[in-house]
Amino acid sequence: MAAMEYRMLTDEEGFTTYALIFAAGDEAMTELRRFAKETGISGASFSGVGGASRSILGWFDFTTSEFEPTLIDEQVEVVSVLGDVATTEDGAAQVHAHVVVAKRGAHAYGGHLIEMNVNPTLEIMLTETPTHLRKRSVPGQPFSTIRLAESG
Questions:
Q1: What does pTM read for this prediction?
Q2: Choices 3.30.1330.80, 2.60.200.30, 3.30.1330.10, 3.30.70.20: CATH for 5-132
Q3: pLDDT score for 19
Q4: Cys staple from 85: which of 44, 53, 114, 140, with CB 3.0 to 4.6 Å?
């Protein structure tokens, strides 16, 4: 199985930019988490484009506090993938990504990226920030959010 490769492109004034190049067969979220762990990144944003042969997107249902998954089991264009990396209360890096994919005929689908099998490639540009982003639980919400007052 292929493995995503990455390279630092710039490191200026505390902002470090990486190119992450995924190959056919890579599972995007697994590789993004591996990258965050290997590099120790605790605050970053990213964007990218590419293709996928199978994707699971999620829509968050506030009535059940769970993601409703949508399987797209065919070749799609990854029109856009956007996200961030921040640390959770236990100090682990958490990758949060949303994606828009398009089927033949320009039919687009979007949501929270749960899983995506890359095909033929996915190209992501990620910029680490000098400020470490912290995610914390919020009373009354079923998930953690970035807390700027605790970031630094």
A1: 0.90
A2: 3.30.1330.80
A3: 98
A4: 44
